[in-house]
Fold this sequence. Notes:
branched-chain amino acid transmembrane transporter activity, transmembrane, cell membrane, single chain, mainly alpha, ABC transporter involved in vitamin B12 uptake, BtuC, two-stranded antiparallel sheet, globular
Amino acid sequence: MADENLSGETVENPSATTDEPSLFASLLAPRYLVGLLGVVVFALLPFLGVSTTQLLVLIGALYFGLFAMSWDTVSGYTGEISFGHAIFFAVGGYTSALLNLGHGVPPTLSIPAGVVLAAVAGVLIGVPALRLRGPYLSLVTLVAPLILLQTFIVYGGIFGGELGLSSPASLVTADEFELVVVANYYIALGLFLAVMLALLLLMRSGLGSVLTAIREDEDAVAAAGLDVAKFKVFAFVLSAAVGGLAGAMFVHTPVGSPQPSQLLGLIVSIEVLIAAILGGMGTIVGAGLGGVFFYFTNDLLNQQDATIPLVDVGVNEASLLLFALLAMVIVYFLPQGIFPSAIRAGRRGLRRARGGETVATDGGRGPDEATEGSDATNPIEQTAERYRRALDALNDRFDGGENE
């Protein structure tokens, strides 16, 4: 079937001749069944003998996974790598803590205030920064949290300096600490799943098509008449708001506190980048699960007393180095990330088990899915195929509205 693209030319739309799977059929895809099983397991953990200490670690892991999804929203989809995303994590956390500790504002009001201020910080940084490209953008995002950190130190009377602030009020109060931990765990799990679902739906809409096209060829999207800067700033501000939400919620838990080492250090920005790479950039789900995996595993490594052979360095002292090396291995052997690669391997196994029958997918826009089912074999052809599909989707979403 032939369609008219944004420039008025008539082109063949290969997707128009392909039967789209129904929503019900998509929900029965193996990946969703596995995901549902995972949700059930996480929901039952407090009843499966998991200790209070382990639940505390999982609370922190879920909020770090939420933070990783916020990073993936802008860096994984637009391709604009943020090296200082911890600034939004910190703005959300410190804002909520200061309002609660200094002015008695309850968490139900201080947390939304932290989200709003993080979004404002996203506007202030994103509007000038996202008009730049390459190393200039990366430099802006790298310097911003360093400036904020020095501000916290200079005005230590307000922000607590390098030691930070005392812990603000908890989200939940109860006579027994175990009940507080369990309640915080379910709040963290529910928020993690809700934000993941919301971001997935958003990224699989017309906005996701545009952001994917920007990642593949920004100049072509601009030539199509779309304001690239506007879409990039929107993604950046959305990312900042979600990061602020993660930070604001985190400081009101038994494991979080408004300290630079937990919220703002350069290490935090590096950790979230590594977590998203491990899980799978441009997938939301992979980044979120990568964040949970990173935080939980990092906590386990930090508790180890063993030393690494030959170099005689403690495992707990070299945990970040170990993760960085693992990320390098993943980038080389599994460039799509652990979870997207596992999904693709599962699909191939199902196809072989069904005698070559194609397994229905849900039309996701992650980089691992963009070439699914195509004949492209080399990286250049795969990139062209990803961009063609993204621009086809972009045409479908926006061409009709502009011709009205």
